[in-house]
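Reply to dn_fold:

You asked what the input looked like. This is it:
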Amino acid sequence: MFKNLSDFSAKRNGWNALGFYIVYVLLGGLLCGLVSGLLASMYCVYEPQICSDGGTEAGYKIGQLWGPIVGFLYTLFMGCAVVSGKKLWNSAVAVLLYIVSVLTAWPFGVIIAFIFVAIISTFDNGSSAKNEKQKPEDNTPFE
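and this is what came back:
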């Protein structure tokens, strides 16, 4: 279930795609939380009167603002890594799923957007044996 998580070119079955989804959604959530927390801390240093309640309200507002931004960028980067790793830029279905994942990352978050990235991870690689068979043979009569 958790095999080859860092190999974006690996073809995954359903269970491996589920493991990929779980791990990278958790990493995305941690990243969003860390960036938002860091920005809230910096905000309280520069605007101490707003953080009079210990920074809870400021942290909530910063998280609401920056969480979706970081999640969007995370989905953009990770989806691109999967599509590029599998060499699927010429596959209309893979590119469409990538675009849908990026567009759903902002309003719905990483939890929904990464469903589409996990689906892309189950596709065959673009440079498969099928494509290698289509290469023209060298039939030159002269040597």
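Residues 14-121 form one domain.
Hope that clears it up.
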